[in-house]
Design goal:
The protein is α/β, with parallel strands linked by helices. The protein has 15 helices and 21 strands. The chain has three domains: about 5-110 and about 250-330 and about 415-420, FAD/NAD(P)-binding domain; about 115-250, FAD/NAD(P)-binding domain, CATH 3.50.50; about 345-395, no CATH class. It has helices spanning about 20-30, 50-55, 55-70, 130-135, 155-165, 180-190, 190-205, 255-260, 295-310, 310-315, 320-335, 360-365, 370-375, 390-395, 410-420, and strands spanning about 5-15, 35-40, 70-75, 75-85, 85-90, 95-105, 110, 125, 145-150, 170-175, 210, 215-220, 225-230, 235-240, 245-250, 250, 265, 270, 280-285, 350-355, 360. The radius of gyration is 22 Å and the shape is globular. The relative contact order is 0.15.
């Protein structure tokens, strides 16, 4: 077995998105030795991906500040296990590595929520954020006819981005009601910067049909999606399209926090006013503590970084801003809560677990997530329940009862390091 690389820092940040980057900078500017591990090829996370990091001055400037502060940027590094107290095992292009730390900040972000319906496994039926990421990576959509369906502001932001890249947006289908959106509009009035963002999106989407109380009921096609059926105002209507981008809000990435023993409440990592989790020395910031968007993630990252460095007085300066942004996030959750009618989209033969080809009919016979795993292998594929787990929670009320390492598929070599334990000297100073 080849030896694994070793990194030792005062503060380790897992996640290189907005929360993680600001947490790292805040801790580093207090004199801490800091490293950021992120599984993407470059820093920026899902919000600030490589394209934006290269073109937006503020993002490029933040990355430059991190480098100037001496932060180790461990891009392409995926944390898969904890092998000893204060030591995580990761895998990257160079193989396995050990990441030792004194304090740990989890900023693992969120992923898209998917809901199954007939045809959702067809090629070019894809997550809204996933399609945006592919376009940022070079996928051409100019002249392609697209429909976006689901719920939340992400749909509008992605639609504006795709339109700017030449896509033809046939329709945006929003499942929220008109009354719910009217209530959300009142919350926007109390957030001037959010209102400006909304008005900017509205302008960018001029001429694109936005249907409320509307959702996809089926997708059709042979080689790939060719059209979809939508439910709108009591009628089913078919729309031709070459891509269907779906997004039913976001799911926090809490697997690592769960593995480390951090307490979760209502599906989110529980933190105190300084972003401290229930585990000593472990902090959490951004979407794992509650889906709140970019601005809230940045503020929470700053608080976590300062608190990890022992600068609690400086961290308190951000409390008021965090409260205000948190109130807006809660209003957004209420507005875009998934309506119960969406549970009726799935049919008996509809695949729910895509990795293991498990249908809804197979799952209906089981009584829990554990039994479904034992009897059908639901949740035991490469995604390890990241897609079907939230789906079965929505459809059947199940919740995954455990998280086991490795958190992601790894090579046998990395797995061997996980079993053999850590070779980092426990007496080495951090």
């Amino acid at each position: 077995m080849t030896s694994a690389a070793k990194t030792e820092v005062d503060t380790l940040v897992v996640g290189g998105g907005p929360a993680g980057m600001w947490a790292a900078l805040s801790a580093a500017e207090c004199g801490m030795r800091v490293a950021v591990a992120d599984d993407n090829p470059e820093m920026g996370g899902q919000v600030w991906r490589a394209e934006l990091a290269k073109t937006a001055p503020e993002v490029a400037g933040l990355i430059q500040k991190l480098r100037e502060a001496g932060v180790q940027l461990l891009a392409g590094t995926q944390v898969v296990d904890q092998v000893a107290p204060g030591v995580l095992l990761a895998e990257g292009d160079g193989g396995a590595s050990y990441l030792g730390f004194g304090k740990l900040i989890l900023a693992t972000g969120a992923r898209e929520q998917f809901l199954p319906f007939p045809g959702w496994t067809l090629p070019r039926v894809i997550g809204a954020g996933g399609l945006q990421a592919l376009v940022k990576s070079g996928l051409p959509v100019r002249g392609k006819r697209l429909v976006l369906a689901g719920t939340g502001p992400l749909l509008l932001a992605v639609a504006a981005y795709l339109r700017a890249h030449g896509a033809e947006i046939a329709m945006i289908c929003e499942q929220a009601s008109r009354s719910a959106l009217a209530s959300f509009g009142a919350a926007l009035l109390r957030q001037p910067e959010k209102l400006l963002q909304a008005l900017s999106l509205r302008k960018a989407l001029t001429g694109i049909p936005l249907a409320l109380n509307c959702w996809v009921v089926a997708a059709h096609g042979t080689v790939a999606v060719e059209g979809i059926d939508i439910w709108h105002e009591g009628k089913v209507k078919r729309i031709a399209c070459e891509y269907l981008a779906c997004g039913f809000h976001l799911v926090p990435n809490t697997e690592l926090a769960t593995l480390l023993g951090c307490r979760l409440v209502n599906g989110y990592v529980e933190v105190d006013e300084f972003q401290r989790t229930s585990r000593p020395g472990i902090f959490c910031a951004g979407e794992p503590t509650g889906i709140g968007g970019l601005e809230l993630s940045v503020v929470e990252g700053k608080v976590a970084g300062l608190a990890a460095a022992g600068r609690e007085k400086a961290a308190r300066k951000f409390f008021r801003r965090r409260r205000m942004l948190g109130a807006f996030a809660r209003a957004m959750d209420r507005t875009f809560a998934l309506r119960p009618e969406l549970k009726n989209l799935v049919e008996a033969e509809t695949i729910v677990c895509r990795c293991e080809d498990v249908s809804y009919a197979q799952l209906e016979r089981e009584v829990s997530w554990r039994m479904a795993k034992l009897m059908t292998r639901c949740g035991m594929g490469p995604c390890q329940g990241r897609i079907c787990g939230p789906v079965t929670k929505f459809l059947l009320g199940w919740s995954p009862d455990s998280v086991r390492p490795p958190l992601f598929p790894v090579t046998v070599g990395t797995l061997a390091h996980s079993f053999s334990g850590c070779n980092v000297d426990d007496n080495q100073e951090r």
